[in-house]
């Protein structure tokens, strides 16, 4: 066994502190192995080499399943070697068998923090603060330093949207990698872009409010007002308008009221109190 600070022997006694709690600080790669397992012995030096090479970006925890049968049972280990990656106390990925070094490296790269992660966060902070000049400069720097960072295409969409380049942002979201297609953040961005598109040729918010006050049946004014509210963060106000549209005019925009509410739920996230409350109200209005 290596004496590397990046490799530990995990047992029932230390598993909670070293593996589960430790995975909140950095990814933990758990290698379930046994002395009699020839593929395990083939994989061991590869894992040890990568643990040292990555210098603490992940911790390698080795579990001897002959000695730690309860841990093997707890994690559903049925064949050896089995390698599981834990983050925030949960198994997020795994592989079985003695993979070659290139495949193990590719497996790790999907999950390990990158040196450019901090730079990506600064881009997003600048976008949120409305400092688009800084955001663009930081984005270009991130693209130069780490062109393969998986979040760069998504950040590009956010930057284009924040800059008001709606057509370009929609084109960019269509070019996103397949693995990002069902990402909740992508669904939220797609919804925001649709709302931005809805008001590109619309009158101002004040004029729309006057129109709606004069004619509560004006579905276009109601929907466009909701779009303005979404883009300035008044999600509850937007949901009220869209809920009223669901009640009054399901035909408008091919059920735009319901679709708009679902888009806001994506923006808020499924666990948000506002999303839960209005989802229930929407279901009541529909049925």
UniProtKB/TrEMBL annotation:
Residues 6-113 form the Thioredoxin domain. GO terms for biological process: response to stress. Belongs to the thioredoxin family. One of its GO terms (molecular function) is protein-disulfide reductase activity. This is Thioredoxin. The lineage of its organism: Bacteria, Pseudomonadati, Pseudomonadota, Gammaproteobacteria, Chromatiales. InterPro entries: Thioredoxin, Thioredoxin-like_sf, Thioredoxin_CS, Thioredoxin_domain, TPR-like_helical_dom_sf. PANTHER family: GEO12009P1. The gene is trxA. GO terms for cellular component: cytoplasm. Keywords: Disulfide bond, Electron transport, Redox-active center, Transport. Pfam families: Thioredoxin, TPR_19, TPR_20.
